[in-house]
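Cast an eye over this sequence plus tokens and explain the fold to me:
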Amino acid sequence: MHAQLVILVFLSWCAHFSRLQQVASDQYRYYNIGVLMASHLDSPFDLERCGPAIDMALEQINDRFLAHHGIRLKKVQER
């Protein structure tokens, strides 16, 4: 629960204070966002273990905090 809260705060901060690339849309203004992480480290903080929590946090931020502002964050992921 604590890690999810930290991720929520981090993504909210990124959405409000970072200069993110905008993508035009009819209903929402979309911002591309990414989290730099390493993969296959055999650590508790690698992409395979933290990735689902980041997805959940992003979904909650979009639904609870940003939807009524007409903003959505869009995850950009390269592997």
